[in-house]
Specification:
By secondary structure, the chain is α+β, with helices and mostly antiparallel strands. The protein has a single domain, classed as Ribosomal Protein L24e, Chain: T, CATH 2.30.170.40. It is built from 3 helices and 4 strands; from the N terminus they run ββββααα. A hairpin with a 5-residue loop joins β1 and β2. The longest helix has 23 residues. The radius of gyration is 18 Å and the shape is elongated.
Length: 102
């Protein structure tokens, strides 16, 4: 399993640890990843995703998983999140048709 956020694409970065004497040693900067269950209102179920703490704040700020995925670019999403975005869009377009038929 890779160390990459499924929603924002944040991944491991590398850089230098610089000591007081200016010696440089290679190190890694890892994203703060969490395994969370987010609820999709359009699908009516919860979805388990591996997201960064920053992405979790963004999801809350935008008003939930459905709203976040609607605005998100497909390039930064994981394959699992892309499939989820398509399912949510399909479920969202099916709702108005059902309401019109009633």
């Amino acid at each position: 399993m890779s160390r990459r956020c499924e929603l924002t694409g944040k991944a491991v970065l590398t850089g230098n640890k610089v000591s007081h004497s200016n010696h440089k040693t290679r190190r890694t900067f890892r994203p703060n990843l969490l395994q969370v269950s987010l609820i999709s209102e359009a699908l009516g179920r919860s979805v388990r995703l591996k997201v960064s703490a920053n992405a979790l704040r963004s999801v809350e700020h935008r008003g939930g998983l459905d709203a976040f995925l609607a605005k998100a670019s497909e390039l930064e999403l994981s394959q699992n999140a892309r499939d989820l975005k398509r399912k949510i869009a399909k479920a969202g377009s099916a709702e108005p048709q059902q309401a019109a038929a009633s």
